[in-house]
Structure formats: structure tokens, C-alpha cells
Amino acid sequence: MEQIHESALTQMRKSVRKLGSSSEKYGDPTLMRFLIARSMDSEKAAKMFVQWQKWRAALVPDGFVPESEIREELETRKIYLQGLSKNGYPVMIVKACKHFPSKDHLQFKKFVAHLLDKTIASSFKGREIGNEKLIGILDLQQITFKNVDARGLITGFQFLQSYYPERLARCFILNMPGFFVSVWRMVSYFLEKATLEKIVIVSNEAERRDFIKEIGEEALPEEYGGRSNLIALQDVTLTPLED
């Protein structure tokens, strides 16, 4: 298996060069995410990797999205970053009742990149390895029709699929009201099979126990059966990376 991986990685790096780009700054764990997302097809993975590089250069030219560019999205305090799960994955919570469809879609895209980047970076131990994953929790408690944003949901999941391949470990959806089922059915149409397999709609007590068990009480706020407090995304300070 290792030889197959080595061969695929070598071929992918060659394909990236043929496409006029470079993968020298990136380690094997990063490239392997793209290979896995494209079923170990080196050429398809290389194409996806180069598209990701171009996307980063256009949307995140400085390597990060500063809070000053997404102030309106942050002001709602709808995203929470809760530390690490039992398996060492950072846990991000979205409170949908605090979200309203954005009139500035570019700012929303930058916000999604910011929250995913910061969530992933919160698990770095001195430096990025490249294969870190995250757990997302989408809480639909108390949402109304004003909070429904199918376009925003699709954007978030498409970012994960196209630009953060193999970063999603699991996504739990909590408290889904009946009227949202048709919305979710439409959103699901845009999701790849591999993404759908990582999504769990928690709808009964047994699933709720499994949800708490997988994440761990230390990272979960009390309202979800854990022992921690909610921590807003902008209140989390990341540890500087090693040089």
C-alpha cells in the first residue's frame, strides 16, 4: 500500500508541474488528501490541487482572511470553536438561529474560508501536518424561515469538497425541524457521496448518546450534554506556529 501511495504522490507532483504549478511547499499528507478525494487518480488530484492554489491566491491572497473583512458575519456570534474531540479533531458549532442570508456573498465566502482555516489551525501542534480534520455541528434549534439559507449551506459544503478535501471528519445536524427536511433534501443534491456519508442527522436519544460519546463531554457545551461553555470563534486565540 505504501508503494502505491508513493507512486501516486510522485506522479501527482509531476502532473502539478505539467499544469504549470508547484507542490514543493507542501508535504505528502496535504497531497494525499487530494488523492483520496479523487480516488487516487494522480492527474485528477493534481488538477484539483492547482484549482485550490488558484482559489487561495484569489480569495485569501495573504494566507488568511482578517477579521476586518468579515466584521458583519462575526458580529452575529453564530460560530463557536470548542477545543478538541476525543480523537483530537477541533469541534466547530454553527447556531443557525443567529444566521441570516448574506447580502454580500463575497464577504460570506471569505467568512467561510476564515472559519474553516481557524478551526483547522486550532488543532495544530506547533506546525501544520496537512491531514488535520474537523468536526462540525449544525444546530437548527429555534430557526425560522428567516434563518434558512440553502445557498449558504451549499457554499459551505462545496468549499469543504473542493478546497478542503478530506478535512471533514464528521458533521452532526441537531434539532432539525420538520419544515427544514425539504431544504436539506435540496442541499443534499449538491453534495458528493463521500460528504453525505460523514453527515449524521441526530434524531433520537440513541443517536444523541453516540454524538456525545464520539465528541466527548470535555469539548461539548452543557446544552449538548457536555461540560464546557460556548466559546465564540473570534474569542479564540491561536497558538503561534513554530518557525
UniProtKB/TrEMBL annotation:
Ranges in a coiled coil: none
Matches recorded under CDD domains: SEC14 (cd00170)
Pfam families on file: CRAL_TRIO (PF00650)
All copies of domain CRAL-TRIO, residue ranges: 67-232
Name of the protein this chain belongs to: CRAL-TRIO domain-containing protein
